[in-house]
């Protein structure tokens, strides 16, 4: 089992067909286990899953440091994506504060390079649009960093159409990272057609609906303190019950094919690339080798037209109950 490669956007970036979201190795989904996380990163390289996604705010800082340690002697085998754009004060994320001032972008990039123990960032995303800094200034600064060799490609995360277009006009955007899955299809009406037009790839995060589409979920209150899902509206109360029912088709198709529900969700995403005419590379997150191997194996699962249509219809936006974020977090999404 070894993953193939996938073009990501029209600027020349090539990555593994499935990536690895590394955030959960340091925060958000229960206690960290550094030894298993490093073993998972090494196993990912063995499997050809070499597109690794991190950010300065994960931890903050400790996720990039973890990758720096894990990738010693292996740097040239991977594609590293990281992000800037949140305000971090005394080692903690400052609420909804954002900071994409050009001088701050440069400070973050230098610090990320040091933590990652590398001389270049393969894909640098603005983590969230900063309403106080023109996107042209952001794109121009990243373009300068590309010219200096510190960054190879430019990306945006959760950006809306207007800012995507404005940024792309200054420095080409290779990829948009946004939540997109069977569970969350907000990009289909407007964003995805714009990505096709501009030649920008899509990197869906949370492709398993933060675990909901993997089939083994509990109510919000049953997760430990510090676990992101405790505050996820879709895991709470009546939303939870409705969403378990909505996800039943994923479980049924998986059972009929003899595979895992999460693998069906990833296979659906990969199939959407040719359908929409864009490059799609999902980045399911995990900190365990077992789940990594399951996710990578999804690349070999093919859904027929009947299965795809059944999934499309079962999880239309009106059948998923509850907002994807709480109000504070949604306020940072540029829509």
Automatic annotation (TrEMBL):
Keyword annotations of the record: Oxidoreductase
UniProt KW Nucleotidyltransferase keyword: no
CC annotations in GO: cytoplasm
Alphabetized InterPro entries for the sequence: Aldo-Keto_reductase, NAD(P)_OxRdtase_dom_sf, NADP_OxRdtase_dom
PROSITE patterns: PROKAR_LIPOPROTEIN
Matches recorded under Pfam families: Aldo_ket_red (PF00248)
Residue stretches making up the NADP-dependent oxidoreductase domain: 17-307
GO molecular function per UniProt: oxidoreductase activity
Tagged with keyword Oxidoreductase: yes
UniProt superkingdom: Bacteria
PANTHER family, per database record: AFLATOXIN B1 ALDEHYDE REDUCTASE (PTHR43625), ALDO-KETO REDUCTASE 1-RELATED (PTHR43625:SF99)
Protein name (record): Aldo/keto reductase
């Amino acid at each position: 089992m070894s993953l193939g490669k996938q073009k990501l956007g029209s600027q020349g970036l090539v990555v593994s067909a499935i990536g690895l979201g590394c955030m959960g190795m340091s925060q958000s989904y229960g206690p960290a286990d550094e030894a298993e996380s490093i073993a998972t990163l090494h196993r990912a390289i063995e499997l050809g899953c070499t597109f690794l996604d991190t950010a300065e705010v994960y931890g903050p800082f400790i996720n990039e440091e973890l990758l720096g340690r894990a990738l010693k002697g292996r740097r040239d085998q991977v594609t590293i994506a990281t992000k800037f754009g949140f305000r971090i004060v005394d080692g903690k994320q400052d609420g909804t504060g954002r900071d994409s001032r050009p001088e701050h972008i440069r400070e973050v990039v230098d610090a990320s390079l040091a933590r990652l123990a590398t001389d270049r960032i393969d894909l640098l995303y603005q983590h969230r649009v900063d309403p106080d800094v023109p996107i042209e200034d952001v794109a121009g600064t990243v373009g300068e960093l590309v010219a200096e060799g510190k960054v190879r490609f430019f990306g945006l995360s959760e950006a809306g159409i207007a800012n995507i277009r404005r940024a792309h006009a200054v420095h080409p955007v290779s990829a948009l990272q946004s939540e997109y899955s069977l569970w969350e299809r907000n990009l289909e009406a407007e964003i995805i057609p714009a990505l096709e037009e501009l030649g920008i790839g899509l990197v869906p995060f949370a492709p398993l609906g933060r675990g909901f589409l993997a089939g083994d979920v509990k109510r919000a209150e049953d997760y430990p303190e510090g676990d992101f899902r405790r505050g996820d509206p879709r895991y709470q109360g009546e939303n939870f019950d409705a969403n378990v029912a909505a996800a039943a088709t994923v479980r049924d198709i998986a059972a009929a094919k003899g595979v895992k529900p999460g693998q069906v969700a990833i296979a659906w995403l990969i199939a959407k690339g040719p359908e929409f005419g864009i490059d799609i590379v999902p980045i399911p997150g995990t900190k365990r080798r077992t789940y990594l191997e399951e996710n990578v194996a999804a690349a070999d699962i093919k859904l027929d037209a009947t299965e795809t249509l059944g999934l499309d219809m079962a999880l239309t936006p009106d059948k998923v109950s509850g907002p994807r974020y709480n109000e504070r977090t949604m306020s940072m999404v540029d829509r």
